[in-house]
Amino acid sequence: MAVSVRPKRVVIAEEFSGSGLSVLRQDGIEAVFCIGKTREALADALKDADGLIVRSQTRVDRDLIAAGPKLHVVARAGVGVDSIDVSACTQAGIVVVNTPDANVIAAVEQTFALMLGLLRHTPQAYASMKAGKWERQTLVGGELYGKALGIAGLGRIGGAVAARARAFGMQVLVYDPYISSVQAEAHDVQLLSLDDLLERSDIVTLHMPLNDRTESLIDASRLKKMKPNALLINCARGGLIDEDALLAALDGAQLAGAALDVFAKEPPERGSSSARLQAHSLVLATPHLGGSTREALERVAVELARDIVNVLAGRPAEGAVNAPIPRGVDAHKVRPYLELAYRIGVLYPQLHDRAELSRISMILRGEIAEVDAAPLVTGFLSGLLQGTADRRISVVNADALARERGLSVEVHAKASDEWVSSLEIGSSSQRVVGTALHHGLRIVQIDDFEIDANPAGSLILTRHRDIPGMIGRVGSVLGDAGINISNMQVARAASGRDAMMVLSVDRAPESATVDALRKVGGMLSVRSVQI
């Protein structure tokens, strides 16, 4: 009797692009729409959901997390995760993913749109023209050229703002407690304390996350340090600014103006400080449009959907918030090896009846030899431990589960050999070597056999005597079973006596087919592998 497998199910709580939906559906994932529904209806939909997609309006707290006992992933379509209890998700083994790079360009361009609109009085000029007026003299503005731009936060968005500000001929000043003077020099910016930056800047733009350390970062005392003709721009998070203090500064002519794309509570409640700022004559306000371009929404949806597919398949996610992921300038070189490490982890225990797991070593060679190996170790362990426990297994809890089982991975870095970079995982009795090429991931060695195999789908691995006719005999058995071979690799051991065959097939063989292969003369072992 065939067993019915329930499709993976993802609840969509807020607006999500059709391109992302297509990615989910191509992988057989069912989308359940709860856009605009009550919190109670959302909690009810999560009872049998594997994933949840939100933007900035849905509060994912412990109660909502508890409503989803099968949740594996909470996905934020955007950057900030302050509306998600990441700690509670981590404790539950749920991966939190976001899209930190997808809307960078949109946020940067919105920053300059507000900066220019505020400086050139564009909203007032528009309203005047629509009213049939022609008021040039009262709308004389200023230029960006020659101005000192103070950037609070030199992350992805802040760094991109700095690059474009220099193209405008601006002097760029930066406050960021987490970057070194060397990094500042690499961006060609001047690193200052926050107070110094506020005192010296003509325009200040905020690009920092909202947390306990940054909430109300720009308060009354810091607003007083700014020049009276200075402008304040915020396209990051509303809570970075003490809104009552900003109102007082604007009313008291301590600032020339502010441009705000974000507010402490969105949408602003009637009579609140946010609503008063929204209506203030010296404030250019927009309704959180920083990432709202068609191009950015498409990128966000597609990248997020791909990460959801990866998490629900047990693989690492590039945008994981609560798990180690490659960071820094060389992150793009490491990311393919994160997926490779996971796939080797899935493959590793299938190569032998009793894979040696007590002493595992990971060897990094070539360009990846100097990177932080923690994400690669976690990726490998998350693949290795799939199916070993009833609870969720992901990059969030893989390290903890490995410690419970007494598993550890010893990391070594070595010079490159024939590959630009390679990843080797093994023990005294077995080893697997892989690399990432421009056309995809490859397994290039298993034990003493040099091969070239795609670590995906259904594979059959044979070890046999290196005698004539083996390929034909194996092909005949699979042909009789109605199994197509899409790719075949044959490799000899250094001794020349034994050989390995790696076959990519269209479906996993039945046990009877595997038994038939084992009975072929000269056959030493047969493994059916799923990756």
Features:
32% helix; single chain; seven-stranded parallel β-sheet; six-stranded mixed β-sheet; alpha/beta; Rossmann fold; elongated; 531 residues
Strand order of the largest sheet: 8-7-6-9-10-11-12
> Termini separation (Å)?
25 Å
Low-confidence stretches: none
CATH level-1 class of the domain at 104-285: Alpha Beta
Total number of helices: 18
The gyration radius over C-alpha positions equals: 28 Å
User: What fraction strand?
Assistant: 15-25%
CATH topology of the domain at 104-285: Rossmann fold
Major sheet summary line: 7 strands, parallel
Q: How many beta-strand elements? A: 22
User: Can you identify the CATH superfamily of the domain at 104-285?
Assistant: NAD(P)-binding Rossmann-like Domain
How would you classify the quaternary structure?
single chain
Q: Tell me the structural class.
A: alpha/beta
Give the helix proportion (percent range).
Answer: 25-40%
Summed over residues and divided by their number, the pLDDT gives a mean of 90
Q: What CATH architecture of the domain at 104-285 would you give?
A: 3-Layer(aba) Sandwich
Q: How would the global form be characterised?
A: elongated
What does this structure look like?
Among the domains are: 10-99 and 293-322, NAD(P)-binding Rossmann-like Domain (Rossmann fold); 104-285, Rossmann fold. The protein has helices at 18-26, 39-45, 62-66, 86-91, 104-119, 122-130, 156-167, 181-186, 194-200, 220-223, 243-251, 273-279, 294-312, 331-347, 374-384, 398-404, 470-480, 511-518; strands at 9-12, 30-33, 51-54, 73-76, 95-97, 148-152, 171-175, 190-191, 203-206, 231-234, 257-260, 283-285, 360-366, 409-414, 421-426, 431-437, 440-446, 449-453, 458-465, 485-492, 498-505, 523-530. The radius of gyration is 28 Å and the shape is elongated. Helices cover 32% and strands 22% of the residues. The chain contains 18 helices and 22 strands. With 531 residues, it is an alpha/beta fold. The strands form four sheets. Strands 8-7-6-9-10-11-12 form a seven-stranded parallel beta sheet, sandwiched between helices. Helix 1 (18-26) runs parallel beside helix 13.
